[in-house]
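Deliverable D4.2, example record:
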Amino acid sequence: MSEVRFLRRAEPGVREESVPWVRTRLRTAPGTAFWLALLVALTACLAGAFPRAVDRYEDAGLRRAAEQARPDRTSVEVYAPPPSVMLSPREREDVLRPELLARQYTKVRAEVPRALVLDPEQSTYGVRTTLDLPVPDPWLPRPTGKPAEVTLIAQTGLGAHSSLARGRLPRADEDVTSAAPELEAAVTVETAKALHIKVGSVLHAPAAGRTLPIRVTGIVTPRDPEGAYWSTRPTLRTPSLVREPAPSVDMHWLGALLIPPEAAPVLLATPGRPERYWQLAPSAGSLRARDTPDLRSALASLEAGPALRKVRLRIDGPVTELTQITGQTEVLTDLDEVLAAYDRFRAGVAPLVAVAAFGTGTVAVVVLLMAGGLTAERRRAEFALLRARGASLRGLTARLFAETAVVAVPAGALGLAAALVAVPGGRLRYAVAAAAAVTAVVCAALPLRTAAAHRVVRVHTGREDISAVRPSRRRTVAELTLLVLAAGAVESLRRRGTSGTSGDLVSLAPVLVGVIAALVLVRLYPLPLRGLARPAARLRGVLAHLSLARAGRTSASAVLPLLALLTALTTAAFGGSVLAGVQDARDRAALLAVGADARVETAAPLPSGLPDRLRGSRGVSDLSAVSVTSDAKPENGAQSLPLVGVDPADYVALSSRTDIGAFAATRLRAGAAGTPVPALAATATARTYGTRPFPVLLPDGSSLTVRITTVLDRTPAVAGSDFLVVNREALSPAMARPTALLLTGQGLDGAALRRAVPEAASVHLKSEERRRFVDSPLQTGAEGVYATAVAAGTGYAVLALLLSLLRTAPERTALLARLRTMGLTRAAGRRLLILESLPQAFLAALGGVLTGWATIRLLSPGVDLTAIALPAAEPAATAAELRTDTLSLAIPATAVLLLAVGMGIGQAWWSGRRGSVQELRAGDAR
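Output generated by the structure prediction step:
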């Protein structure tokens, strides 16, 4: 352990003495050093883990977005036009040979910007026909009589990316020409099944002046069917049934025949206009959210920039008149659109997480400062004595810095190591910077606090409680500055919302509101206590008056504990409301998608006894049977819309219970015979047809005349923006039969419902639909980080209260011992400590509740939770809003009160175990 030299204000000729201060302090106060190290380690661990956790879930979210986009959008395709007819036949064939394509593939990969990391296993190249070739063989399936078509693909790496199911891989001579009499090809298992192809089957494709026979020698199974090799062009793996453009109703099959790369020159003999291509698959494991700007820049350069110019130079050579006529190499990809969509998604999530990070970080810093302040308060007499005996302020602060650093630096390093182990991945430098910042704050807190308190040499100090110390002008200016910043942040958030350009000030809005509330409450704190102390003085007992008097003489440094408590309670209330709003938004979106807790529907009418059977199922509390047809034609026109036939009583109960388009049952009450049927309609439907009677033609040929009597935004039976709802009794018997059942209840069993309904019916549960809304690690990761930040902030709030009570614990213990020598009972002493600690705890709890409520009300217009609650594809009608969550306000505030009471009881019990003489001696020693 290194020693720090303490220099007194030396006199000439006096020998300097070296005192082992640091070693002595650690030996005399090991408990203090241990708890400080634990606090630093935990805080450094949280600080170091936060940026890595954010990086981790953002990277996972980007990879999930790329997976969902599929390789046909994320792959980068480089393709060159067919060889020019101005070349000789031999030169045109050589352009398509695999040896030249391989060299060009190497050159193309060399010109790809470094930001785009490629997957060599899934990247490939080859030649393919750009026009589909009709195959007239009669044994191929013809759904509408039109012959099937094929595309010929000579893609390298077929053997490495597939396994043989039957037969062998196709072969070709290395010097094959376009005049080859026949070709060998392979097909995938799916293609063979759909087109009835077997090993040995021969297909006949058109060629120049002849028919080109293509013999299938093998049927292969893709090793990685979802990989870029097979899925960049889905037809390569799976055939498709192509529908001819309207008004034609013809359909035909389109499949791929996989020929060997050496046979590519044969494609010149077909009318398929063969093109060369180089398929570059990005490496999914290398995608990182922080690299998206560079990656988007690289893609822009490849599509229309310097990189494209270099690729063209490698493939086409210098620009000549020939290349201008025949066309140049092009690069296509939709990966940049995928990245742009992800960036928009992340921009909606990041500010919400920043709010929690700033709130928890502020509370943590305040607690660290309080820990230093607690030590400075405990050792005030020691430092005052040292200053009075000639210790220099610089030497004292340096000594205290070394004393704290010896404990804090190893603890910070240990916390950083724990963060690196707990959260693998992510950027190291941010974690190191965060842990280093925590360590620096701890090392500086005690020396700076001591330097501020003992810059003037003095032994005795006057009263420093709230009642005696008046706020200085500097403090007033600082508080007004914070007030202006808080008002600006709140107004900015309300105007611009939580967008990616809102800045850090907007993310600090809840924290600033809590800071302003703490400063205001500290100024107002003495007023109610003074008002209560006067009537309490006229009471018989001394406990109320004494506790209020002592609470009113709370130290002026109580601003830090109150600041920590209010900031933590505000952040917890805001964070809890965010998480509750996310859950509510998902529940609402799932309810709107299903229409009830469960939905059973089919295209044909349901069995007549099914509703009664399901009413008795476990968990089902109510059921509404409806008939839904999507082909109702108002005014006998060509435009159709959904029409729903309902039982008014059941449907009214369902609408009220789900709060989806509630209405009165009288709105669907049928009138006299021959009068229009009353109908409920969507807003768009009512805008189109108005309130006049109009006929509606139904699919069974019947019709009815309806009049719109009520306009609804939505209804449980239909999720669209157009619908009509009528009484089922007004429909014909065939149209009135239920096609859907809407069930409500708790704990519905999806498996049991599916067993009870016909096989043709589909069952949708709200609980299952809700899981679909969490489709990205960006959402789950942000929720996890947010919940952790809120929990950590709450823990720091508890720690702030403990530090606040520990700061005055010796004084209260000594006071209790003196009062016991004067006849105070243990029960009275317990009540005294509780009553003394309650005002500040009650002030913090009440202020936290009010501040949290005000913060949510102020910021809710600018906070949109849709990005974190719902997938990007969800409609705006299910947008998530920030609402006040009662539990998030009440639970932390109640915990503060209970902890304050528990601390008072615990201290009274502990002091009661020791004798009054011992306590008084301990107090005198202090």
